[in-house]
Design brief:
Elements lengths: L1 E5 L3 E2 L5 E8 L10 E6 L6 E6 L5 E3 L7 E6 L4 E6 L8 E8 L7 E4 L3 E5 L2
Parallel strand pairs: 2-11
Antiparallel strand pairs: 1-3, 3-8, 4-5, 4-9, 5-6, 7-8, 9-10, 9-11
């Protein structure tokens, strides 16, 4: 299984960040696994953002819930993250990951990460 993030790299406040994770070796739509987005701000630890489960139900970090949306693109074996009203505090390396089976808290496969910088 391989995951690859793609995104704009640089945004200005208060634009909306859109990231895509392309999955190979698994089918996002029919997968038995959950998929997640995690980010790491500079100098800080990993921060879970959102998870989408096998039924398409979504779970969000409470502090980001009002600005975050995750969805599956079943035709392309992709899933996406949208984060609205970005600010410099959203500068981070963003990762997509596949969770361990039936586990919301640990991850088995990771993408390489994509740097997102928010600056005016």
């Amino acid at each position: 299984v391989q995951l690859q993030e793609s995104g704009p790299g640089l945004l200005k406040p208060p634009q909306t960040l859109s990231l895509t994770c392309t999955v190979s070796g698994d089918s996002v739509f029919s997968s038995k696994y959950f998929y997640s987005w995690i980010r790491q701000p500079p100098g800080k630890g990993l921060e879970w953002m959102a998870t989408i489960d096998t039924s398409g139900n979504t779970y969000y970090r409470p502090a980001l819930k009002s600005r975050t949306s995750v969805s599956r693109n079943t035709a392309e074996d992709q899933f996406t993250l949208q984060l609205s009203s970005v600010s410099p505090e959203d500068t981070a390396v963003y990762y997509c990951a596949r969770n361990r089976f039936d586990d919301y808290d640990t991850y088995e496969y990771w993408g390489q990460g994509t740097q997102i910088t928010v600056s005016s």
